[in-house]
TrEMBL record:
InterPro entries: DUF6495. This is Histidyl-tRNA synthetase. Pfam families: DUF6495.
Length: 158
């Protein structure tokens, strides 16, 4: 398996898609029950293959990822050949970006000396989707990119 197996809840949400996936492999509902009962290792492999297909579909559509921690914000724009990063770092332990108050502080003190901005570009490795997956595994969230676009305009980068 390349990525991670979907959770039970995710499989439940994708029940119909999983049935369609089994059907493309000519596996009927009765055959699936038999495989689960008598060939658990084969069932595990099917779950893994389906999980990887779902992940690949999701990862190929990701445009923006945000990772917000108490003292830092990392905003990624996933482009065709590289990733653009805008990062903010705060030099004030009393501020926590993960809280509403911390975000309000940032909005009011954006240009203060205690807020540092970083701007970088990173080429993907040979596996763009795995690079994106690793960011998600490290706590990044897929977003629509509003925060990235706001800071992109603010710092004047394209």
């Amino acid at each position: 398996m390349k990525y991670t197996r979907l959770t039970k809840e995710q499989f439940e949400e994708l029940y119909q898609e999983f049935i369609n996936f089994l059907a493309t492999q000519s596996i009927s509902a009765d055959e699936w029950e038999d495989i689960k009962k008598n060939k658990p290792e084969t069932a595990e492999q099917e779950l893994d293959v389906f999980s990887d297909l779902v992940w690949l579909g999701v990862l190929s559509k990701v445009k923006y990822i945000e990772h917000i921690s108490p003292q830092q914000i990392h905003l990624f724009k996933c482009r065709e050949k590289d990733m653009h990063l805008i990062a903010l770092k705060i030099n004030n332990d009393a501020v926590d970006f993960t809280t509403k108050e911390g975000f309000e502080w940032l909005r009011n003190n954006l240009l203060s000396d205690s807020v540092e901005f970083f701007n970088a570009k990173k080429d993907y490795s040979e596996d763009k989707h795995m690079d994106i997956f690793k960011l998600i595994q490290q706590g990044g969230n897929i977003t629509k990119g509003e925060l990235f676009q706001y800071f992109e305009k603010l710092i004047g980068q394209k």
